[in-house]
Design goal:
The complex is a heterotetramer, with 2 copies of chain A (80 residues) and 2 copies of chain B (148 residues). Chain A is an alpha+beta fold. In chain A, a hairpin with a 2-residue loop joins β3 and β4. In chain B, α2 runs antiparallel to α3. The radius of gyration of chain B is 16 Å and the shape is elongated. Classes of the chains: A alpha+beta (80), B alpha+beta (148). At the C-D interface, β4, α2, α3 and β8 of C face α1, β3 and β4 of D.
């Protein structure tokens, strides 16, 4: 299945992209997605377990990801 | 309360936010403005650009306003965050709160800015006098899962 | 900081007070507005008139600003109180504080309004819907000597 | 000696005046002044020991009052 991965700020710089279409087995979790990202160039500049949002809500490592979900890696926020 | 966009690219009009929380039952109105500082962590700053995960940032801002309203018993809470390039002294965020009593107005204002800084997906890149630009990491660390 | 009169009879312009504390070193600006509430202690209010011992009120307001400045390390503190007849929703007092950091901005703002309410010789008379007017006594008591 | 007494708000209403010129013996204190006021009509509506300012500063009952001083009775303040 395909999920859209969004990258922002320093993470977008690290991976050289703001959007990545990721191919994952069904029943994958956020943790599986993070593992899949590790092989990308620049991924060593991400923290071990970055914050993740699925469909605009904060998610945990064991949250299940579904076909068509919008998954985002959230760098440390700095609003205000 | 007049609904205002929570994310804007044009300069924020603080009085518009104040008017949005105006209500004859409010004895206290509090306006918080965050502004771009000339110096941060000892480095000279010439400007900042703000970026956001816009859909989620809007959703989180609305959730914070709604939590503040139910927790402190006022519907007069308005927040606006600016995105894009800002110069020194420009307003990046405005939070207005109206309440019958000042204790609660201060509590709501504080709640909104602290929650905003904790969980709203907005990032800032500082521009320094030497021409470099850097994304600011207020934590120095990152962790998985929802912010606690 | 532009000096502003601390007691005024014309409507207060909140943005003028905010501008008076504007400074490129300030990351946070806080504006507190006190306004006339439609209902107080269960009675319908149509307006308020404020009176002051003007010379002493000015002196006390200046002292509070000066104390706040030295205690919290900012010179960006401005306060303005209105006198005369005010209608519902009109602003009776505006306090603006600019500071590098928001913790201190909130602390200064709170300090100024609490001290103002404790010791500045200003009085208000509420006008009620039945045509009567009454001087408000927030304490219900009075005592000799300086307020503690 | 003469001192000027200022009255405000509810105290002005109680005593029917906003300014009173008070004749007092030299070396009088704020406490003596308060005692002198007690004989005025309406003074029963004042609290037993109202706040007092001398020359625009809060003063105590034993503060000495001098010729030409501006003494003010301060009702409970209600600014803000």
């Amino acid at each position: 299945m395909t999920v859209t991965l969004l990258l922002f700020a320093s993470y977008a710089e690290a991976l050289g992209a703001t959007t990545l279409d990721m191919e994952l087995p069904r029943e994958s979790t956020v943790g599986d997605l993070l593992t899949a990202i590790r092989s990308r160039p620049g991924a060593d500049r991400l923290p071990p377990t970055p914050l993740v949002a699925v469909n605009e809500r904060y998610a945990n490592l064991d949250s299940v990801v579904r076909e068509g979900d919008e998954v985002a890696l959230i760098p440390p926020v700095a609003g205000g | 309360m007049t609904p205002l966009p929570s994310l804007v690219r044009a300069p924020i009009d603080p009085m518009e936010i104040v008017r949005a929380v105006s209500n004859p039952g409010n004895g206290a109105v509090l306006l918080f403005l965050g502004a771009v500082r000339q110096v941060n962590d000892g480095r000279d700053v010439t400007g900042i650009d703000y970026a956001a995960y816009e859909g989620m940032a809007q959703r989180e801002l609305e959730a914070i306003v709604s939590e503040a309203s139910s927790r402190f018993g006022t519907s007069d809470v308005a927040v606006q965050h600016r995105l894009g390039e800002l110069g020194v002294e420009e307003v990046s965020v405005a939070i207005a709160v109206g309440h019958a009593h000042r204790d609660a107005a201060y509590a709501v204002s504080r709640f909104v800015i602290e929650e905003l800084k904790r969980r709203v997906p907005i990032w800032k890149r500082e521009h320094y006098t030497d021409g470099t630009r850097e994304w600011v990491d207020p934590t120095g660390r990152a962790s998985a899962g929802a912010p606690s």
